[in-house]
From TrEMBL:
Keyword flag DNA damage: no
Keyword Signal: yes
Signal peptide residues on this chain, from the entry's feature table: 1-25
Domain of life, per lineage: Bacteria
Coiled-coil residue windows: none
InterPro entries: Cupin_2, RmlC-like_jellyroll, RmlC_Cupin_sf
Name of the molecule in the record: Quercetin dioxygenase-like cupin family protein
Keyword terms, alphabetized: Signal
Cross-referenced PANTHER family: CUPIN DOMAIN PROTEIN (AFU_ORTHOLOGUE AFUA_3G13620)
Entries under Pfam families matching the protein: Cupin_2
Occurrences of domain Cupin type-2 (ranges): 49-113
Amino acid sequence: MKTLRNIVCALALIATALPSTAAWADPLQRTDLLKNDIEVPGYQIVQVRVDFAPGSLAPRHSHPGEEVAYVLEGTLQYELEGHKSVTLSAGQTLFIPAGVVHAAKNMGTGSASELATYVVRKGEPLVAPAK
């Protein structure tokens, strides 16, 4: 019985020493809001909310269509291939042309969020990692 109690105590100490499961969560959280066909044959509109943990990065990627990024909160820095980086705060928007490789980073110490609206070709993955 004493051995069992020692094991339970040791497990409790280990559990309190480990980071919380929240700290293990993905630093980017994507929430699909809308996906709908549009009148342009073969295209659809997609809306996604992207939440960035402090300092997190959406690595270089592209989309099979245009994106309009609207910063809901925080400060995000966007790096578009072939363009100067741009830093946006809540209420500002950015147009990202189809196929342009880009990345986004939360530059603040708190959370940041964007509303991403895409007009993309149907049947293709929404996000393609850059090579």
